[in-house]
Design brief:
This protein has 204 residues and is mainly alpha-helical. The chain has one domain. It has 8 helices and 5 strands. A hairpin with a 2-residue loop joins β1 and β2 (50-53).
Length: 204
């Protein structure tokens, strides 16, 4: 299991009984999880704020391989923040579909996260058990990604026990992107409310 797959399962578990993460927030966090895994395998490196591909074999995981193929392969390369937005578009749904196809998710008939196909929950599989049971001593990067995405209804920039500078930079970029997305949602809500008031006209 990759960090991104673990994150999706944690998100679905976390949203099962309460507030679920916004799909856009989760998609950005999943893109960040992919970068962290690719850093770990040496498939990419960070050069300042740029994400630079390395000449490593393509990952066996299909979605990680897709992530590598989407990288800009020539200087000046792509800013990490730009790549998170581009790669993150629809990524939560892509991971959900992949895990459903592998039998790792089971459908649940109520509205919530990914309401387009109902609200899936992690299937009772050995892979799911390995992901959920170790939460008492969670991976710091996975925990930080989940918190940045608001998996448990709260969002924090804290990243305890992160000693790798590149991983910390990825987590910071994910948090900034999620905050930017939240601000954009707020602007749209205000704009739509103002439009509704103009459309309805004065009352009384």
């Amino acid at each position: 299991m990759t960090t991104a797959r673990d994150l999706l399962i944690v998100a679905l578990d976390g949203g099962a009984g309460g507030a679920a993460a916004e799909q856009g927030d989760l998609s950005l966090a999943l893109a960040g999880a992919e970068v962290i895994d690719l850093l770990g395998t040496g498939a990419v490196r960070l050069d300042g704020d740029r994400i630079v591909p390395a000449s490593q074999p393509a990952p066996q995981d299909a979605l990680l391989a897709e992530a590598v193929s989407s990288l800009v392969g020539e200087p000046p390369y792509e800013a990490l923040s730009d790549w998170l937005w581009r790669r993150g578009r629809g990524l939560a749904a892509a991971y959900r579909d992949a895990l459903e196809a592998e039998g790792r998710l089971a459908a649940r008939s109520r509205r919530g996260l990914f309401a387009r196909k109902g609200n899936p929950v992690p299937a009772a599989t050995p892979a799911h058990d390995r992901t959920v049971q170790p939460r008492a001593t969670p991976d710091a990067a996975l925990t930080a990604l989940a918190e940045a995405a608001g998996v448990h209804g709260e969002r924090t920039a804290d990243a305890p026990d992160i000693t790798d500078d590149a991983v910390a930079a990825v987590l910071a970029a994910v948090y900034d992107a999620v905050v930017e997305l939240a601000s954009e949602r707020q602007r749209r809500t205000i704009s739509e409310a103002a439009f509704d008031n103009i459309w309805r006209g004065p009352v009384g």
